[in-house]
Amino acid sequence: MVRVAIAGGSGEVAQEVIDALVASKEHEIVILSRNGQGSSNSNPHNLEWRQVNYGDVNSLAQALGGIHTVLSFVQLLQDPGNKAQKNLIDASILASVARFAPSEWGSRAAGSVMPWWTGKDEVKEYLRQVNATEKVLEYTLFQPGLFLNYLATPHKTSKHLAPLNTFVDFHNRRAIVVDGIDTIMTFTTVQDMAAVVAKAVGFEGQWPAVGGIRGNRVAVSQLIEIGTRVRGGPFSVDTVKLEDLEAGSLTTSWKLEAQHHSVSGDEAEKLLRSVLVGTLLSSAKGYWDVSDEWNQLLPGHQFADIEEFLEMAWVGKP
């Protein structure tokens, strides 16, 4: 049993992980919050809450007293300069925290093609630098690829994760593909991801620096074939050229619609276009083809099969 602290615990993915940790009945869970104690409605499991100031490393280190593992779900769009996460790393070292997981929870890379996630690369580099001469903080980059649950949009298939559009739209039987590239994607349910993280917290061996979680590895062409079977009809497919995407040009018959709760209405349309271009580019470059380190370390975990999951998600739905 270890004491694990959750930073950014009000987020959807964080809440899925908290539920999995609670269900394991193996760990003590501390929620770090800027606002202090949550209400009874937001704290059904009577978890310990500690109020923190992410701008003050010393007070943050005090709040991390007795903590073994820190899991960060800090929202990158709300952390200018990645100051909160860098301070959280520095405070973890001061407080002798053993393990740290930064706010990853997606692809294996971001780079310039997903500007809303460039902070992930900066935080990875920061972790590498603090451990450059000697290991002072064990860490892993939890990377589950794209959440399989999103392919059930607009239907909700987990307790906390909200539906979100992707470039393969099962609801409207349509997809956008990159010309000449049959991209490989990793799809993992958020429930599987959360279960693996809960097991990883109790893992007695060393955490791998890169922590891929591979639920299903499929080509986009296979995904469209699955969609055709599951949805009972062919998909309409728009094709875009890689060079057009790299130039920031996008001409398709449809676009993403659902927006993230962290983005204001004024910014939403611009961000959605950027997300669609960036996701198509990053998939074409292989960024969503994640590794399987945690599959190998936790061989007993049975992942949801993509076709079985989607058949259940779409059965009886128009």
From TrEMBL:
| Domain of life (superkingdom) | Eukaryota
One Pfam annotation reads: NmrA
Provide this UniProt record's keywords sorted from A to Z: NADP, Oxidoreductase
Q: Tell me a Gene Ontology molecular-function term this record carries.
A: oxidoreductase activity
NmrA-like domain mapped to chain residues: 3-241
What the record says about family reads:
Belongs to the NmrA-type oxidoreductase family. Isoflavone reductase subfamily.
Q: Which PANTHER family match?
A: NMRA-LIKE DOMAIN-CONTAINING PROTEIN, NMRA-LIKE FAMILY PROTEIN
Record-given protein name: NmrA-like domain-containing protein
Q: Which organism is it from?
A: Lasiosphaeris hirsuta
> From which lineage does this chain's organism come?
Eukaryota, Fungi, Dikarya, Ascomycota, Pezizomycotina
